Design the sequence.
């Protein structure tokens, strides 16, 4: 592919630290991601896919090598700052990871917009609900009052509200039944069709990756096999 480079990784290793024990879980990754594509990372559980995604999201700073993201050269060991915190968003496998179980949905979703001093916050949240096919009346509910598919749609709304340039998707459909999984994948395909959003999708399901992604690589035991 050609076009603007959104992310570039060079000789990147990812580590996990447990007490004094440091273990390398991703090795020597070389990847280039381009504007507007959906890029897939496929492989079995435990192969390092999610660990790599968490580095791209700025959630794991235990890595070494080279990383350029949205034109910024990233320094190992330091969290994301400035525009990167808005421009890179993540949808987690478990929606509860991003939805506070004791807060109504509107309260959870409006917090990042308040921090950025956005205007017409409730209207923007309602528009986000409509974008993913949800009734804005659901904003007054708690996460446990929604179905699994509805919660995952809300998690996608939460990620999209800040209008990111890069959306990271960590097994976003693995916990859903087949009919709801198809709905979420169709929604993501609609977002992809706009051409303005770059996505990196992690999955152990090769069929999902084939359906969604323009390019893909296989990961095994921490290595990208191509």
Sequence:
């Amino acid at each position: 592919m050609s076009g603007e480079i959104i992310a570039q990784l060079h000789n990147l290793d990812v580590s996990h630290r447990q007490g004094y024990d440091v273990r390398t879980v991703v090795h020597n990754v070389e990847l280039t991601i381009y504007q507007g594509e959906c890029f897939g990372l496929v492989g079995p559980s435990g192969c390092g896919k999610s660990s790599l995604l968490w580095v791209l999201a700025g959630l794991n700073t235990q890595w070494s090598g080279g990383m350029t993201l949205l034109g910024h050269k990233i320094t190992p060991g330091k969290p994301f700052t400035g525009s990167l915190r808005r421009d890179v968003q993540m949808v987690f496998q478990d929606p509860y990871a991003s939805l506070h179980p004791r807060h109504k949905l509107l309260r959870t979703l409006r917090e990042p917009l308040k921090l950025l001093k956005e205007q017409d916050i409730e209207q923007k949240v309602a528009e986000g609900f409509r974008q993913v096919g949800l009734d804005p009346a659901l904003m007054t509910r708690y996460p446990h009052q929604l179905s699994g598919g509805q919660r995952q749609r809300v998690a996608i709304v939460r990620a999209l509200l800040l209008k990111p340039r890069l959306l990271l998707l960590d097994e976003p459909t693995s916990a859903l039944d087949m009919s709801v999984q198809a709905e979420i994948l169709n929604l993501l395909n609609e977002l992809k069709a706009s051409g303005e959003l770059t996505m990196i999708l992690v999955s152990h399901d090769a069929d999902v990756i084939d359906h969604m992604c323009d390019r893909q690589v296989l990961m095994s035991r921490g290595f990208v096999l191509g």
Summary: Residues 5-224 form a domain with the Rossmann fold fold (CATH 3.40.50.300). The two ends are 15 Å apart (CA to CA). The mean pLDDT is 89.
